[in-house]
Amino acid sequence: MRKWELSDARDLAAALSNTKIQNNLRDGLPYPYTEKDGTAYITEVLSADEDKTFAFAVTADNKVIGSIGVFRQENIHRQTGELGYCIAEEYWGKGIMTEAVKQICTYVFDKSDIIRIYAEPFAYNAASCRVLEKAGFQYEGTLRNNAMKNGKVIDMRMYSLLKTVTYI
Questions:
Q1: Could you tell me which of 110, 121, 98 has the C-alpha nearest to residue 168?
Q2: Are 100 and 137 in contact (CB under 8 A)?
Q3: Which of 43, 129, 151, 154 has its CA 20 to 30 A from that of 5?
Q4: What are the structural domains, with CATH classification, of the chain?
Q5: What is the pLDDT of residue 167?
Q6: What is the pLDDT of residue 164?
Q7: Which contacts qualify for 51-55: CB closer than 8 Å, 24 or more apart?
Q8: What pTM was estimated for this model as a whole?
C-alpha cells in the first residue's frame, strides 16, 4: 500500500476494466475504465483533504493492482470512516487485500481521530466479507433490500472495526 502517483492510472485502468470487479462496487465507475478515468480519480484523491480522505494504491509485482480508501463521514458520524477497496481479479484469494485492510485501518487510527471504520459489501460478495472478517472486522447485521445493483434489489452486510480493537 502506498500513496497514489499519476503514473498509476494505466495500472488502475487495467485492474478496474473488469465486470467481475465492477459488479462488486458501487455504481458510477465507467466501463471500460480508461487511463483517463484513472488519472481523474488519482488527481481527485491527491487533492482531497488528508483528514477526510485516506486513499492509497494497493501494489504487488511492482505495479498497482487495486485501490483502498477510508472516507470520513460527516455530522454526528464525523469520527467514523467508510472503507472501500478493490483488487485486480488475478490477485483474488492471495491475502493481499486482507493485509491492505489491516494496514489502512492502522494508519487511519494512528493518524486521525476516527474511532470506527465500517464497510458495507454486497451480501453476495462472500470473498469481500471474508477479507473483512480476517482483518478483524465484526459483522453487525444485514441491511436488507439496501441497494439496487445491475437491476436487482440486493442486501448488504455491515461490518465495523473499532479503534480499541487489537488487530489479528
A1: 98
A2: no
A3: 129
A4: 6-119 (3.40.630.30)
A5: 53
A6: 81
A7: 51/112, 54/81, 54/104, 54/107, 54/108, 54/111, 54/112, 55/4
A8: 0.92
Segment 133-168, tens digit of pLDDT: 999 999 999 999 999 999 999 999 999 999 985 555
Look-up: residue for cell 479503534?
A: 163
Neighbouring C-beta atoms of residue 106, cutoff 10 Å: 11
Residue 60: phi, psi to the nearest 5? -165, 150
- Secondary structure class of 113 (helix, strand, coil): coil
Q: Residues 104, 108, 110, 116: is their CA dihedral positive or negative?
A: negative
Burial 2-33 (b: 16+ CB within 10 A, else e): eebeeebbebbbbbbbbeebbeebeeeeeeeb
Q: What is the pLDDT of residues 119-128, one digit of tens each?
A: 999 999 999 9
Question: Packing angle between helix 35-47 and helix 9-16, nearest 10 degrees?
Answer: 120
To which residue does cell 480522505 refer? 53
